[in-house]
Amino acid sequence: MGNDKGREIEKPLSQRSELVGPVINEEVLEQGRLDSRFALRCDVNVLLRKPKKVLLIEPAYRAKYPPLGLMKISTFHKQHGDEVIFYKGTNARLRDQKWDVIYITTLFTYQWNIVTRTVKFYQQNKANKNIKIGGVLASLLDDEVRKETGIKPHVGLYKKVDRLAPDYGLFDGKYEYFTGNASIGYMTRGCTNHCPFCAVPRLEPGYVHFIPLEKQVNPNKRDLLLLDNNVLASSEFPRIVEEIKRYGFHKGAKFEGRLRYVDFNQGIDARLLTEEKMRLLSKIAIKPLRIAFDNIKFKSLYIDKIRLARKYGIKQLSNYILFNYDDTPEDLYERLRINIKLNEELGLSIFSFPMRFIPLNAKDRRYVNTPNWTATQLRGVQCILHATHGVVGPKRTFFEKAFGKDAEEFKYVIEQPEEHIFYREKMMLYKRWNEYALDSVLS
User: Which residues contact 382 (CB under 8 A, 6 or more apart)?
Assistant: First the structure.
């Protein structure tokens, strides 16, 4: 960290002393091809160790993105000549083999049941005593995991492997994730905010202002998926943009004849989005630009930043809209409606992704923020989003058909039986219901 008090900047690999070299085996030693750095850092006993058998497990929950931690662990072990196998779910044939180490990743806390079942399944083979658990759930519920399984989980980042390149060949085409043809990485770590609904302070407590793209970009991948939690908080943001451009992701860049895209997938903080930062973002192949809209109190700020994006030629946008936290159905609808209006006014294409809040220690998805919401209303919203694959599109006609023409109709829709939400022909039209209700009152 040097003289940068409270500020951490990751050095490029070329400037670091630790080992990031090739696989070492007896053939390399016999041929005298041992890099001098290895000789300085390692001893012969380590170099000649027997290759390990390593099993990487992801529980069989739904996951949009691949387990990046396991991909980096795979790289680490393969660099040491180890045999690495990945499997999603439980498999008795794999369980009954002898493994030197089994790594089990975890994701959301509400997947508690499937995660603990998976861990206990692999514990049935008593020969496999070296089982390691890590990831989000394990970090947030570490005490509960230890009590349930007897295993003390790893909390937070696994720094030993965090800067390694992911092993993109780990899944061997057998498992499909939604990353497309993209390299996956980070240019910062952590977040300077400490939002009470967010797990990042627990997972990445320190903020790293710059991480080089070296070893993160796969030359055979077209796009770049960056998972930074708050990239705009970095004092090195201009350097980050230059690094992205240097690796071939400038605006208009192509790969094998197709446009390349950069996606800061976790979204950016509108409160930190200055005009200069927007100008810099417009110089890279950003698509879409994701801006969080978590609270209606940020309405004016959010609208201003969308207009600023349009000023700099960014027309493809997306946002995350938190609900069931400290909001109401009415203000969820209002935030969605604002995007529809901005699309029409500015000629944009903004896709919204409503995200239901679940407490960081919840082991299921049943949490209801009463009295603002009811379980019926939340289920109604999920029914609509199920039909739209979780996305609220930019067109008014579709939006009003799915969510209603105003907040009152929206509340009416989400309070209907599930079957009526899915099959609208079974639902009494809101206008008719309103007239019927009024007649009942007058009579």
Answer: 356
